[in-house]
Amino acid sequence: MLSVFVLCSCATGRNGELTWSSPQACIASYTTGGAILGATAGVLIALATGGGAKNTATKAGIGAAAGGAMAFAYAWGHCFAAFTKVKSAEDLPYSTVRKEIDYQPRQGTLTKIKELSVDPVAIAPGDKPSLNASYYVMTPEEKEVEITETIILKIFDPYKKKFVELGKSQEKVVVQPGKRKATSEIPIPPNAEEAKFFIAFRVDMDGKYDQKEVPLTITNDGAILAKAKDDLDRKGARVARVEAEHATPKPVELASAVGSKNLSSENVQQVEITAKVANLRVNPDASSKLVAKANRGEKFALQTTITVGGKKWCQVKLEDGASAWVSASLCKITE
């Protein structure tokens, strides 16, 4: 029997549950146990295969690293709700949104996430990226409704060969129908392991919901962090430019109108299929459910990439707005 004792900065709340002084204190209690259990598994494997002392120590070290890395992901999920909160506020009133999206009462209740981003998309341990979302909630009658806003932390588990939900933070609020903006700081613990996560945002209302997700990379790689910061700066500049153009309307000349077609695709990378036929799958795994097939020369918007078991995969956006994964060996990334 293995017993694990962990010193932690915690206290017992009124409901009997533990509360933590910081994300790293909460996570450390789980990752320590994961590393110890991983090391124990490594020792058992080495002994079962007849390894000597050196082999046993090596397997224990590998087991500890792997156990600690995955334990961090699941531990962060356990601690996620305690330190991540979503806040939202009205952005546009019901009457304005009704005209903007041509909403008709016969459509019933409507929930639609318009935009979602985590800024920046790559972050170092100890920093705080921000989640930013905008969404519509519309009802046939302009009256208050209860909605649930949820932030979900996900990761691809190579053992289960699928994306798994690690944890979530929910807020129930009563709001007026219309367009809303939601924000949240996501504190990354200083003891965070390098990995690629996905942050999903979901809005529920009256049995209907909409959900979108975006990648978040935790890394110490200076080049990746610098690129993420540059991309965020360019994004801010584009937003400022658009807001300025809306503030001071100008006559649009034909040349500028034509040129403006490509503004939305600025710096957007594409994935071009290079194999005769490529399988598009639900998860980045060759045994995952098939979504569709794509022929050589077909192009899709690139959403993100991930490496699983030494193999690189690209997440692409399909025509219907859904996402799918294609092996990087079957395609190439272009500007």
TrEMBL record:
<dbReference type="InterPro" id="IPR003646">
    <property type="entry name" value="SH3-like_bac-type"/>
</dbReference>
<dbReference type="Pfam" id="PF08239">
    <property type="entry name" value="SH3_3"/>
</dbReference>
<protein>
    <recommendedName>
        <fullName>SH3b domain-containing protein</fullName>
    </recommendedName>
</protein>
<feature type="domain" description="SH3b">
    <location>
        <begin position="277"/>
        <end position="329"/>
    </location>
</feature>
